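Colleagues,

For the teaching module next term, I've prepared a clean inverse folding example: a structure given as tokens, and then the sequence designed for it. I'd like students to try predicting residues themselves before seeing the answer, so please don't circulate the second half yet.
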């Protein structure tokens, strides 16, 4: 069953950040896709390239599966390799018999799209801006037998405490935690990967974001043996290619984990730099950053966001529109974290883009298109601002949320 935008509450669940940098956006500086720049690293490309002479043989995933299991301290029966984390959402939707699936939004839209495509009626729990998009477990219906939530959550960059997520577990309920961005969190704090004491827990991981493997498709599921067996039966034969299996084994090696930890710490510093610069727009331009941000991206709310996004394209930058995420409207944008030099150039462009959008020259409304804005973007007065050192973060708002 194809997804229907009307049934989805008017949100285009199949729109993702890569749409911003296709076709006429291919030459833009990409702050729309949450894949780490300058990846894959040379050593990983060498490992993948070395596997190509064996393409005549059918893939054998045993070594990669064992390596992933060892990385998380689990038996292999609790691991399933998939063609990216997105495949896991399809498998869950097709293989599990559930009566009341619930997706906690705003979050990555593919879980709900996959459930709808499989014929399920999906309920939503919408976390609220005034609560910092933080989860109150009581907001999830007690009779929900499948609950899906991201941690850290795309697009809000909120990192939910592991203990809070564990409170969602119930006998007879499958709790799916999408940890696609957890390896971008220093120390992977609040991760549930490797836990076997949480009933019905399913953790999804992706190797796409940190290692730049979106085109290779590799991820994995960590779950109880029974759940893994059901999902595996729903997979086609040889679902993960030999190069992807080699990449999976390489990316969970001790060398790779050390490199990923270093990258996570660098992302945190670059994110603080970006957030500090964005805060400069708060008083005069009405921009608000969702804080504390813990992922490799930040979510901002600002007036005339659609016009700003189009003006940014004229200035050479792509950012992710937020209105396709349930729970958000057309005043939201998601911005990927990049190095400081790129962030400084982006902040200068944002300064100018907000002026041209305010003057009505920043393009049309939200829509589904990704075309550029209109006209020449004038310089803004006073000169564009650059961020200083990160200031103190505001206190977190109360943790309450409302069911959809």
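(Answer key — instructors only)
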């Amino acid at each position: 069953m194809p997804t229907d935008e009307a049934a989805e509450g008017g949100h285009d669940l199949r729109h993702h950040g890569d749409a911003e940098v296709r076709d006429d956006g291919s030459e833009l500086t990409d702050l729309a896709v949450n894949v780490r720049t300058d990846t894959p690293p040379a050593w990983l490309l060498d490992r993948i390239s070395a596997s190509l002479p064996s393409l005549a043989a059918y893939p054998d995933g045993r070594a990669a599966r064992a390596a992933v299991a060892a990385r998380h301290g689990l038996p292999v029966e609790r691991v399933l390799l998939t063609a990216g984390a997105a495949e896991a959402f399809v498998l869950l939707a097709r293989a599990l018999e559930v009566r009341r699936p619930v997706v906690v939004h705003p979050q990555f839209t593919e879980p709900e799209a996959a459930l709808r495509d499989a014929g399920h009626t999906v309920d939503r729990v919408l976390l609220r801006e005034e609560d910092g998009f933080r989860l109150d477990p009581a907001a999830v219906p007690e009779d929900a037998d499948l609950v899906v939530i991201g941690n850290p959550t795309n697009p809000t960059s909120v990192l939910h405490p592991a203990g809070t997520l564990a409170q969602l577990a119930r006998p007879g309920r499958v709790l799916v935690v999408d940890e696609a961005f957890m390896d971008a969190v220093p120390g992977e704090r609040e991760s549930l990967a490797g836990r076997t004491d949480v009933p019905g827990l399913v953790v999804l991981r992706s190797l796409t974001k940190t290692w730049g493997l979106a085109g290779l498709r590799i991820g994995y599921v960590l779950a109880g043996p029974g759940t893994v067996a059901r999902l595996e039966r729903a997979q086609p034969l040889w679902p993960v290619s030999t190069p992807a299996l080699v990449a999976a084994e390489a990316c969970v090696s001790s060398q790779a984990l050390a490199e990923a930890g270093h990258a996570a710490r660098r992302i945190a510093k670059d994110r603080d730099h970006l957030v500090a610069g964005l805060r400069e727009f708060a008083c005069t331009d009405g921009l608000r950053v969702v804080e504390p941000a813990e992922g490799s991206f930040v979510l901002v709310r600002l007036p005339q966001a659609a016009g700003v996004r189009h003006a940014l394209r004229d200035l050479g930058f792509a950012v992710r529109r937020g209105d396709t995420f349930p729970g958000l409207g057309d005043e939201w944008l998601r911005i990927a974290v990049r190095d400081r030099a790129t962030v400084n150039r982006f902040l200068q462009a944002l300064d100018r883009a907000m002026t041209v959008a305010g003057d009505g020259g920043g393009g049309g409304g939200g829509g589904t298109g990704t075309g550029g804005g209109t006209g020449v973007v004038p310089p803004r007065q006073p000169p564009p601002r650059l961020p200083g050192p990160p200031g103190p973060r505001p206190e977190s708002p109360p943790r309450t949320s409302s069911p959809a």
